[in-house]
Amino acid sequence: MEVKKIVDLSLPLNNDLPIFPGDPEPNIRPATTIAKHGYNTSYLDIGSHTGTHVDAPFHFREEGKTIDRLPLEHFMGEGVLIPVTSKQGGQAITLDDASPYMEKLGPKKIVLFHTGWTKYLGQEEYFNHPYVDIEVVVKMLDLGVRTFLIDADPPNGEDFPVHEAITVVNGIIGENFTNFDQITFDNPLIIALPLKVANGDGSPVRAVAIKC
C-alpha cells in the first residue's frame, strides 16, 4: 500500500488539555532525567478519556464491552467526512445536515463530523460544542455505522442520549479529535487504535487519516 498523505487527528498529550468536568486532570512530569540518572522517563498521570480518545461501551454500560475486548476493526476503516462548520455552540447537527452523506454510509464506515471546534481549544467555548441530534445517530446505526468521531451529546453534561444509543450496540465514540479540515481527499483510511487497557472504559489514541 502506497501512502500519499497522513493527517494527524490527535491533540498533543500535555497538562493543558481540556478536561470534561470531574475527569482526572493530566499530570505529566519527569520521573528521571539524563542529567541525574542517565536517561529520560516520565510519569503519565492521565484519565482514560484524556485528550483525543475513544469511549468503550463499558464507559456507559456495565454490560458493555471493555476497550480490550472490542474488535480492532471498529477503530479503523474508511472515513466519511460530514462538514458542519456553520453550526454554533450548543446547536444540533440535524438530519438535514447529514442526509446528503447518508448514501455513503454502511457497515465498517467511520463518521467524522467536522465542526471546526478545535479553534476554541483552551477557551471556555470549547465545551459549548455542537452535538449530534439523536435522530441522526439512529439513522446511521440503522445503516450499520458503529464508529462516530465527535463530542456527540449536548454540552450541558446532563443528558447522554447519543452515548446511550451507540454504546447499547457496542459502538464507539471518539472525542477531542482535530485537523478534520486537513482531510482534503476522498475515502480516507481512518486509524484510531486505543491502548489495550485491561477492562478499560476508554483510551487515548493517536489517530490519523491516510490517503492511499
Q: In DSSP terms, counting alpha (H) and pi (I) runs of 4 or more, how many helices?
A: 4
Write the element-wise H/E pattern from the N-terminal end onward. EEHEEEEHEEHEHEEEE
Could you tell me how far the N terminus lies from the C terminus, measured between alpha carbons in angstroms? Answer: 7 Å
Largest sheet: 9 strands, mixed
Helical content stands at: 10-25%
Low-confidence segments, ≥5 residues, pLDDT <50?
A: none
Strand order, biggest sheet?
A: 1-13-11-5-7-9-10-4-12
Beta-strand residue percentage = 25-35%
The overall pLDDT average reads 95
**C-alpha geometry:** globular
Count every beta strand, where a strand is a DSSP E run of 2 or more residues: 13
How much is the radius of gyration in Å? 17 Å
Q: Which class best fits the helix and strand makeup?
A: alpha/beta
Describe the structure.
- It is a single chain.
- This protein is of the alpha/beta class and 212 residues long.
- It contains four helices and 13 strands.
- It has helices at residues 34-37, 95-98, 134-142, 161-167, and strands at 5-8, 27-32, 41-45, 53-55, 76-83, 92-93, 109-114, 131-132, 147-149, 172-175, 189-191, 202-204, 208-211.
- The protein has a nine-stranded mixed beta sheet with strand order 1-13-11-5-7-9-10-4-12, with helices on one face. A two-stranded antiparallel sheet has the order 2-3.
- Strand 9 (147-149), helix 4 and strand 10 (172-175) form a beta-alpha-beta unit.
- The longest helix has 9 residues, at 134-142.
- The relative contact order is 0.26.
- The model has no long low-confidence stretch (mean pLDDT 95).
